[in-house]
Specification:
Elements: H1 2-17, E1 22-27, H2 32-77, H3 81-90, H4 101-113, E2 117-122
Length: about 120
């Protein structure tokens, strides 16, 4: 199982290294009302990010709990050291991560609607 994790992380690193980097330059609106609006957009984004982080945390905790319960059941049914070793080898890993991309996309849309300018640069 650990070999699969190392392999997956290595593959992910190779894939990411070949990707282009996208940068967004946010230029605030000139008006006071526009700047207030942008502040509200930022607050909404932070709430969205917090919700996404909490979702991923709960999903990970649920996965870990389920995996631990399955492992315990396997060990309880295992009769010898070989079977217990099989339980350890089949023990699943839990992978979760927050995806805040939607929060950032929504923030840029909100920012533009408030009169700000969003400049996208691809490197």
């Amino acid at each position: 199982m650990k070999r699969m994790v190392v392999l997956a992380l290595t593959l992910l690193g190779v894939l990411i290294s070949g990707c282009q980097t996208v940068h967004y330059d946010l230029r605030p609106p000139a008006s006071d009302s526009g700047r207030l609006c942008v502040t509200q957009c930022s607050a909404i984004r932070e709430t969205c990010r917090g919700n996404e982080i909490n979702r991923a945390k709960i999903e990970h905790e649920n996965c870990e709990s389920s995996a631990q319960n399955a492992f315990r059941r396997c060990l309880a049914a295992a009769g010898d050291a070989g079977k217990r070793k099989e339980c350890e080898q089949r023990r699943p890993g839990c992978w979760t991560s927050e995806n805040t991309a939607r929060c950032d996309d929504d923030h840029r849309t909100c920012f533009s609607q408030c009169g700000g300018t969003v400049v996208k640069t691809v490197k």
